[in-house]
Write a structure and sequence with these properties.
The protein is an alpha/beta fold. 32% of the residues lie in helices and 16% in strands.
């Protein structure tokens, strides 16, 4: 039996918000190496395979915003839905010091197979949700590790990522988060905010939709209590930032 490579929650919810989670799971479908990429189970629990805690934050945040949500149902190591089809990091062969055996000899035909099975259906579904109303606002939820191998600790608890092509909502959100006395907030940290062909570029920037990408340090959201706490915290701040932006 085939299943869709994504989950949609609350498709009928009325809010103009759409919450997305590109890296929701570490699942490897059976059609890829019998469900294994050939790396240790401990590596599949790392950030290299998915955004730890992001799915839970997405679910709870979407409920609080009364908004639909879409979550991927395949590991980013199978194929990364937050990369354009021509991006050289679309299928990673080495990630944060770990070689991905099932990806070492991936050729163009296999990339095309994974695009057709996973990447394109996810983006088609995302676009359908985004187009359900003319004033959709996209909030993408990601997480980041406290450090990468051999790197310094990351001080930020939350980062707001945005493109120079449309910083309007993100800058209002940054102001609101920086007003919180207990938060260390990153602006386009720990990653840059613009990547041509990524999900925000494809579904927000090119369509003129207001957008923001929120990265939460994953040690804060590993458990459901943290996921709920961050959803509770972010929902009113996002609403206030959107109102302030006038978008």
């Amino acid at each position: 039996m085939t299943t869709e490579p994504f989950h949609i929650l609350g498709a009928g919810r009325p809010s103009r918000w759409l919450v997305t989670c590109d890296h929701a799971t570490n699942r490897v479908p059976d059609c890829i190496g019998g469900g294994s990429l050939g790396i240790a189970s401990a590596d599949m629990e790392r950030h290299i395979a998915y955004d730890i805690g992001a799915a839970g934050v997405t679910r709870h945040l979407a409920e609080r915003l009364d908004a639909p949500a879409i979550l991927s149902d395949f590991s980013r190591l199978v194929i990364d839905p937050n990369r354009g089809e021509d991006d050289p990091t679309l299928v990673m062969k080495l990630y944060d010091g770990t070689i991905i055996p099932m990806n070492r000899h991936v050729d163009a035909a296999e990339v095309e197979r994974r695009l057709a099975a996973f990447h394109r259906p996810y983006h088609d579904a995302l676009e359908r949700l985004a187009a359900r109303r003319g004033d959709t606002v996209i909030c993408a939820i990601h997480s980041f590790p406290p450090r990468l191998s051999g790197r310094a600790d990351r001080p930020w608890q939350v980062g707001v990522l945005y493109s120079h092509l449309d910083p309007r909502l993100a800058l209002c959100l940054l102001d609101r988060l920086r007003a919180e006395p207990d938060l260390c907030v990153g602006e386009n940290e720990p990653y840059g905010g613009h990547l041509e062909g990524d999900a925000i570029d494809r579904h927000a920037l090119r369509q003129g939709r207001p957008n923001v990408l929120v990265e939460i340090r994953h040690d804060l959201i590993r458990g459901e209590d943290g996921q709920i706490a961050w959803a509770d915290r972010l929902a009113p701040i996002l609403q206030a930032a959107l109102a302030e932006s006038g978008l």
